[in-house]
Design a protein that fits this description.
This protein is of the alpha/beta class. It has 3 domains: 37 residues, no CATH class; 160 residues, Rossmann fold (3-Layer(aba) Sandwich), CATH 3.40.50; 88 residues. Helices cover 34% and strands 16% of the residues. It has 11 helices and 12 strands. The longest helix has 18 residues. It is elongated, with a radius of gyration of 25 Å.
């Protein structure tokens, strides 16, 4: 299989022996015209069916945190000998804890293209695989999903929030997630085998707005890698990476707040803190005042009443993590009322 890249738009001028007499500025234009546009349509023809491929995700992400989790993911994707196959890990944790960041960062460390597919409750099997689209000329084009594109290209696909999908969608992935490593598209009639370098992982949120993943799928999504809250030093690095222009004292305020929340098993995450910092800075700039003065406003804007209650020493029951056997811990200055 060979990748076809549609030519970039624009006038193409042939380069020949007399090209050395072309002015330098024109030469530069010719060079730019011959380079494929990053948004050019990429296609792959399989069994006389042309598939329009998705584009990889390019995001500034860096994993800052527990290196043991990173090594677990690397080990899951390793192949130790020709008869071995990679595992399909699932990354478990509450929203905003860094699951997608971990998967993306490790895949990029491996030098792979990364494709992120956002799963929803109404994701259909054809959304996961190949979707027919009627073009402006009335012809049908077959669009490969990010997952299928990763299969063809030998990239990594992250099925984000995968436990929001229904069983019908999961069933279409069953042969891909075991030693068969293929998908069957009913729409095109293709049986497509994954490239040997293809890897996949699923992120799954630990909240109530998800489906129960079927057992026959759970057994294919191993190992389970569970992400928890980062420690203080890592949390500070995460906030500084995402909001590098925030002053240190404001970052310390956010880290103090988060660490106290973690000790009390509240569902406040680094993603929330990044939003709080950004809102503080915007309010400070808009009012031409110290952004620290707007910390409470930012907590309310990002976390709502639960966040304000906790800032005032009240432990909000609605924001607790629902894990059996947990004991609440309080600082000396915390109000134990809930």
């Amino acid at each position: 299989m060979s990748l076809k890249i549609a030519p970039a738009t624009g006038t193409m001028m042939p380069l020949h022996a007399k090209a050395r007499f072309i002015p330098r500025a024109i030469k530069a234009d010719i060079a730019m015209a011959t380079e494929p546009s990053p948004n050019a349509r990429r296609t792959e023809t399989i069994d006389n069916i042309e598939l329009i491929l998705a584009h990889p995700d390019e995001i500034a992400m860096e994993w800052i945190g527990n290196d043991r989790l990173r090594r677990q993911l690397v080990a899951s994707w390793m192949v130790v000998e020709p008869r071995d196959t990679p595992l399909n890990p699932r990354l478990i944790g509450q929203p905003g804890i860094g699951k997608t960041t971990l998967g993306y960062a490790v895949a990029r460390e491996m030098g792979r293209e990364v494709y992120i597919f956002q799963c929803t409750m109404d994701t259909r099997p054809e959304d996961l695989l190949i979707t027919p689209v009627i073009a402006s000329d009335g012809k049908i084009g077959y669009h490969a999903s990010p997952l299928v594109t990763a299969m063809i290209r030998g990239g990594v696909c992250i099925l984000d929030e995968a436990n929001r999908m229904s069983e019908k969608s999961w069933a279409s992935l069953a042969p891909l997630l075991d030693q068969r490593r293929y998908i069957e598209s009913i729409i095109t009639g293709l049986k497509l085998r994954a490239h040997e370098d293809f890897r996949v992982c699923c992120t799954m949120n630990d909240d109530a707005s998800t489906y129960e993943v079927p057992e026959y799928i759970q057994s294919r999504l191993q190992p389970q890698i569970e992400l928890g809250f980062p420690d203080r030093a890592d949390e500070k690095k995460i906030l500084k990476f995402n909001v590098p222009f925030a002053p240190d004292d404001l970052v310390e305020m956010a880290v103090d707040y988060l660490q106290r929340a973690h000790r009390n098993y509240l569902r406040f995450t680094p993603r929330d803190a990044v939003g709080m910092l950004r809102l503080c800075l915007k309010l400070g700039r808009m009012n031409d005042q110290d952004p620290r003065m707007f910390f409470e406003d930012s907590v309310e804007g990002i976390l709502g009443q639960d966040g304000i209650d906790f800032l005032n020493g009240i432990i909000p029951a609605s924001a607790r993590q629902s894990r059996p056997g947990q004991r609440m811990e309080f600082d000396e200055d915390d109000d134990e009322s809930s």
